[in-house]
Structure formats: structure tokens, C-alpha cells
Amino acid sequence: MQKRIRIVDSTLRDGMHAVSHQFSPEDMAQIATALDEAGIDTIEIGHGDGLGGTSYQYGFARASDEEYLKAVSGVLKYAKLDVLLLPGIGTKKDLEFAAKYNAKVARIATHVTEADVGEQHIKLAKELGMEAIGFLMMSHMVTPEKVVEQAKLFESYGADVVYVTDSAGAMVPVEIAARIRAVKEAVSIPVGHHAHNNLSLALANTLAAIEAGADMVDGTCKGLGAGAGNTQTEVLVAVLNKLGYETGVDLYKIMDVADDIVAPKMKRPQVIDKNSLSIGYAGVYGSFLLHAERAAEKFGVDARDILIELGQRKTVGGQEDMIIDVAYELSKK
Amino acid sequence: MAQKIKVAIIGPGNIGIDLMYKLMESKYVDLDIMVGIDPNSEGLRLARENGFRTSDKGISAILGNDEIKIVFDSTGARPHLKHAPLLEKDGKVAIDLTPAAVGPYVIPTVNLDEYIDSPNINLVTCGGQATIPMVAAVSQVAEVEYAEIVATISSRSAGPGTRQNIDEFTKTTAKGIEIVGRAKRGKAIIILNPAEPPIMMRDTIYTKVKNPDEKAIRESVAAMVSKVQEYVPGYKLRVPPIIDGDKVTIMVEVEGAGHYLPKYSGNLDIITSAAKAVADKIAQKIVKDIEKEVV
């Protein structure tokens, strides 16, 4: 029996981190058209930090949320358009706006212990007729029991799916499997996993998640994403084919999207270097990478020292301003 | 010693209780009564233990009592919308600690003098109280085209009200940045951090200014920090203003006084401290007005 695995491609959202949010609406339309034709089920777009993310704190995107939504919603024939919203950054107004542009999926992302800040947004997404996904970030920071408690909160708000996310790319397969298995047993909605590749384990973790019961997983073409990037969509499709899972994605076509359309738009190679490895090792938010590299240069310190210190301070997603704080302090030592 | 003005608190939650302790140190106001709706609430119990009158009949326990001149409302936006007209009709000044925004936004160090006679004063948000003084400090010496603030607070200090209305925080704070901070455009971001032991409230204030004058900005910011410290001693500049092209970055930390809420709850402390500062100023004005009438 072939289990169907639903794939969300986030090249146009998580991938935005790797290009400092500089894809143009035309770039997005072109990539989305090709992803759609390749058979990707769900396509996530927007600023790397989701709706309303354009800012000094996270970097200004090349275009507005509206321009991206407009550009992509016009070209999709089959795939569902997906937006990410981090409560505290984006607001319900942003979600209403996205729904007007035919966004069908809303992923409401909170830190793994703070699901309750997303209650209103999950409920609004449902009212707007969208599929609502609770997205628990930085799930490596807590025990599987805590992840379960928070996943159940999202389920109680009416979420259709709950995600266990490894935002820091800090976990190894057994840790992912433990969390996914525990959540899968505790909720009656589908469970998803979003991986990062800082420890070179994104694909291994994604497979561990699927074996532990995950129904839905994320990838990005060429692995384009925060830190060392994400699970590489085209590789994921190939591997799932070999394992006998059904994805609905055409392997040749998704390879072509990655190599012929996405690769030429990349600003830097998507590799694991000492800084992205430090992110996974220290367990800090993946999008800190480029901010830490800039701060390291400005304050004359080692980016690894900044990242390790941020890990020790237990920073969470979105705390990019702490990078300056830490870099400044290190430079005074 | 001049007479003290009688005040009341509606809403005996964390904020109301912390405010009660702060008012005990006031030279100008005298807390008369704390009112709520649950007779068994911790807040009413603590108020009784500290020798204050209490009532579980809500606002009706205050209305008609002409001795009470100033009323703090720390209930919620919806109840305050009901309370505001009743208090005004009853001739009481309302200091609103909810996001209802019936009255003008007030930040004590920036625009209190302008609204000292307003029947209703809104205190924006905790993040607004912590960051708008910095935006205003930059505005005093430069034209601020855009200001963005990031408030990071410990998860433990974010109550259910904040959590269920997190959008209120971003919306109201952004508006306050524009109206009181005088930035042409404002944006606010809030982050909850669950680290144990809990982190202090930290705020980053980014402003976009044309041709920033580093010396003038540093001096204006330093002067404003001292002004805020007059009523929030734990307000500290973490990093002096960093100028990067047209971007100015300012970072502050707010340590609470630890009256009722622990010291890490600087976010709650700064709004209760602002409420006391506003009440003290209004009370002095009321006393002066009464003295004038007597003469």
C-alpha cells in the first residue's frame, strides 16, 4: 500500500531568507508556475518571516505582501497557495488580506511553548474558509510531552494540521521521531514536519518523521532556506519515489524547476559552512545566519561566537535584534 | 503637606495589584478602593490585607462617590468602553491601562502636559511605554520617516489578555509610535521568550532618519532615558544608539521594581509606573485648582 505524502514547497518563503527576501514578484510567479506544473500540492510564499515580516528587524523584502500574493495567485492552476503568519509580527488583517488573494492555507507559527498566541489567527483562518495549520517552531527546545501539550492546544482551536518544526535544524532523527510519534498519538489531525539542514540531517529527519507517522512535510528547491537551508524538494521526491510513497510530484519536472529556474536566482551557494553548522549545533533560529554574519563583520567578532552565545541565552525565533546586542557585548570584551 | 487626592482601581488582576503597591508610595494620591467582580479574587484579598476598601460590585461601587477624582481601569478594552462614559459623567478622570483607546495616548515623558485636562487618558501598551520615549527622543532632533520597535518579554509576564489579543499590541503600539513618537510610519513586533529564569523585558527601537546627527541623537536619547528613569528606575540603555546610514538602532532593557510582579516583568511595571506618574501629576493639578477656587 502506498501512503500519500503531502509536500509543501517553501522555496518562495523559507527560501526568501537565503536571498535576503529579494525575490521579485516576477521571480515568484515564474517559480510558482513551474512548481504548480510539477505537481507540488501546496506552495508557500512571502517574506521569510511571513506576512508583515518586512522590517528592519528581519530585512525589508523587495516587494510588499500584496505584490507577491497578486503575482502568485494569478498563476496557480492546481496547487494551494499558502501563507505563513507569526502572531506578534503579522496580524489578522494581514490574513484577511491574503484570503482575498486566494490563499487557501494559513500556517500559524508560534514558538513551541506559545501556541495560545495563535488561537485567534487559527480561528480567523477557519472563518475565512482557509485550511489552518498550527506550526510549532523550535521544537528541539522542549520535551516531546511539551510538544504534545501545545499541539493539542492548536487542535483545540480548530487547526486542520499541526506541524512539529525544527527551525534551528538542531535535531537528529531519533529526536524528531520521538516528537512526531508522540504528537501523532495524541491528536486526531494530520501531523507535519519542517526540517533544516544545518547538521546535514534535513532529509534524514524528514524520513524519520514520515516513518513516525508524519502526513505532510516541507521542502525547498535546491534546499534554499534559512541557515543551511531545508530538505531539498527534488531530492525528497526522488527518495520518496524509491521508498514507494506517493507524492503526486513529477520528478523530472521538479528537478528542472530546481536547476533551471531556482538555481540561477540564488545569491550564494546553499551549503553547510561553519556558521550554518554553528546554528544547528547551538540550536538557534536558522534565519539568524546572515544577520549574524553582518554583525560579525560590523563589530569585528566571530559569527560562531555570536551564534553560540545566542544559543546559551535561549533566544527564540524572531529575536534578530539580540544578534546586535550580543555582537556589541562580545566586541567590548 | 498638601491634601492627597482619592483614587480607585477597577480590575484587581496583576496590573491592578502591582499598581496598588505603587500607589502606596505616592505623595499625591491615596488609594481609596479596589473594585472587581469576583469576591474571592487574589487582588481583592490583597487589597483588604493592605487595609484598602474593596468591592465586588464593579464600577457601581465607585460611581457617585464624589471624593474619588481619579479612576484607574485595568480590566480590558471591552469593559473600559462601558466604563469610560460613566466615569466621565461622574466627573472622574479615567486612566486607562487597557487597549480601549477612548482617550488620547499618553506617555508621561513625552506628552502628558498636553493632555493634563483630558477626562480620559490611555496609556497605549507596555511596549509603547517602553519604546515611544526613544522614538520621541529621536524625533526631537531629526525627522523620523519610519520607526519600528521590537518588544521581547518573558512568556511568564504575558497574561491571557495579552496572548489572546496579541494583534491589539502591535496595532496600538504602532499607532502610538506615530501619534506620540511622531514617526511618519510606525510598526511594532512582539516576541515572547519562555527562557527560565525569565528574561528581562528588552526593546529594540529602529528609526529611519534623514542625515542623522549622531551627537544630537545620543544626547537626546540619554536625556530621555534619565526622564523615564525618574519613574522607572530599572529603565536602562543596553547599547548606545548605533547609526548605520539612515538607520538608528537603540536598545533598552526594563527591569521592574518587583513590587508585586517579579523584577523580570518590566513590561507590566513600566505601564503601572506610568499610570502612577500620570495620576501624581493630575492630582497636583487638581489640588492647585482647588486652592485657586478657595482663594
Sequence-ordered SSE layout with sheet pairings:
The complex is a heterodimer of chains A (333) and B (295).
Chain A: E1 6-12, H1 14-18, H2 25-38, E2 42-45, H3 65-73, E3 80-85, H4 92-100, E4 105-111, H5 119-127, E5 131-137, H6 144-157, E6 161-165, H7 173-186, E7 191-194, H8 202-211, E8 216-219, H9 233-243, H10 251-262, H11 274-282, H12 288-299, H13 303-312, H14 321-332
Parallel strand pairs in A: 1-2, 1-8, 2-3, 3-4, 4-5, 5-6, 6-7, 7-8
Helix pairs in contact in A: 2-3, 2-10, 4-5, 6-7, 7-8, 9-10, 11-13, 12-13, 12-14, 13-14
Chain B: E1 5-10, H1 14-23, E2 29-35, H2 42-49, E3 53-55, E4 68-73, H3 77-89, E5 93-96, H4 108-111, E6 120-122, H5 126-139, E7 144-154, H6 160-164, H7 166-179, E8 186-193, E9 201-209, H8 214-229, E10 235-244, E11 247-254, H9 266-294
Parallel strand pairs in B: 1-2, 1-4, 2-3, 4-5, 5-6, 7-8
Antiparallel strand pairs in B: 7-9, 9-11, 10-11
Q: In summary, what is this structure?
A:
Chain A is of the alpha/beta class. Chain A contains 14 helices and 8 strands. Chain A has 2 domains: 6-262, Aldolase class I (TIM Barrel), CATH 3.20.20; 274-332, Orthogonal Bundle (Helicase, Ruva Protein, domain 3), CATH 1.10.8.
Order of helical and strand elements of chain A:
EHHEHEHEHEHEHEHEHHHHHH
**Shape estimate of chain A:** globular
The CATH architecture of the largest domain in chain B:
3-Layer(aba) Sandwich
Order of helices and strands of chain B: EHEHEEHEHEHEHHEEHEEH
Count of DSSP E strands of chain B?
A: 11
Number of helices of chain B: 9
**Parts with pLDDT < 50 across at least 5 consecutive residues of chain B:** none
> C-alpha Rg of chain A, in Å?
18 Å
Q: Report the CATH topology name of the largest domain in chain B.
A: Rossmann fold
Count of the separate structural domains of chain B: 2
Largest interface: A-B, 29 and 33 residues
Q: Let me know the average pLDDT of chain A.
A: 97
For the terminal residues of chain B, how far apart are their CA atoms? 18 Å
Instruction: Please report the distance between the alpha carbons of the first and last residues of chain A.
Output: 61 Å
